[in-house]
Amino acid sequence: MELSIGEMLMIALVFVVLFGPDKLPQIARDLGQGVRKMRGAVEDIKTEILKETDNPVSEIKREIEKVKEAAKDFNPVHDIQKDILTDPAENPVINPLEDDTYTGPVSRNRP
């Protein structure tokens, strides 16, 4: 919204006619204070909105960092290699047909 010089002079003339020349300085001061208060209120609102929108973002960033840290230690290939390379004597293979203590779903009837 841009005002030309003619429009500003017309507004000033209307103020002089309505309020008189002696009240114009007080009106200008009051108008300036009102504009400053309005700008301050807008800045406060803007700051609060930015604070509120920043919190979820920072929480998400912290959660992402936690997941990254947990993923660093996770290596499924290492776990598989460890299982393959273990000594079979430590984990003996149980043959259900030969083990009388086995209680799994295997029939004891041999053909």
Tally the beta strands.
Answer: 0
Which secondary-structure class do the elements indicate? Answer: mainly alpha
Low-pLDDT regions: none
Number of helices: 3
Mean pLDDT: 79
Label the overall shape: rod-shaped
Order of helices and strands: HHH
Roughly how many Å is the radius of gyration? 41 Å
The oligomerization state is single chain
Summarize the main sheet.
Answer: none
In whole angstroms, how far apart are the ends? 99 Å
Proportion in helices: 55-70%
Beta percentage is under 5%
Structure in words:
This protein has a domain at 19-84. The chain has three helices and no strands. The mean pLDDT is 79. By secondary structure, the protein is mainly α. The longest helix has 50 residues, at 24-73.
Keywords:
111 residues; mainly alpha; 3 helices; 0% strand; rod-shaped
Concise summary:
Helices cover 68% and strands 0% of the residues.
Describe the secondary-structure layout.
Layout: H1 5-19, H2 24-73, H3 76-85
